[in-house]
Amino acid sequence: MNGFPLYPVGFVRSPFKKPMPPEDFRGTLSRIELRPEFEEALEGLQEGELLLVLFRFHLCRGFPMKVHPRGDPANPIRGVFSTCSPYRPNHIGASIVRLKEVTGPALTVESLDAVDGTPVMDIKPFRRINWEGMGQTSLPRSPFL
Fold it and tell me: Which candidate, 111, 63, 53, places its Cα nearest to that of 86?
């Protein structure tokens, strides 16, 4: 399988030093410290908006094709793509957060479920889709925001 390089745009600074269940991050403030060359890329972000943060599960090694969700053997085994397991083929995580503040090349965000030192690969504004206007039911609101 051929690959391609990805380089972090920054790193997470969080009070959490080891992996925890995603709900434990709810309401917690973290900082994303960008590399200085990306500071101007923050122009236009607004406090209070939702962001999609893509990051790398840097503490994970290897991955199974099937897992017990949340690592609990009481949960039926499922394919890794149907779970939120950090053990994934490319170790990529995604989190929707609320932007609290931009200070220089750093963002303060709420509810980022990534531990201290996590490499951030990209940041994008999160835009909700009007599913009703497309004749579909709406998606549930995230319990983390």
Answer: 63
CA 98 to chain centre: 12
Cα separation, 119 vs 72, in Å, equals: 27
Answer yes or no: are the C-beta atoms of 17 and 25 closer than 8 Å. Answer: no
Whether 122 and 109 have beta carbons less than 8 Å apart is answered as no
Domain boundaries, the chain: 28-112
Which CATH class, in words, describes the domain spanning 28-112? mainly beta
Residue with the two structure tokens 């990306």: 38
Residues 6+ away with beta carbon under 8 Å from 51: 45, 96, 97, 98, 99, 107, 109, 123, 124, 125, 126
Structure tokens at 130: 């009007």
pTM score: 0.80
Instruction: Please report which confidence band the pLDDT of residue 144 belongs to, taking 50, 70 and 90 as the band edges.
Output: very low
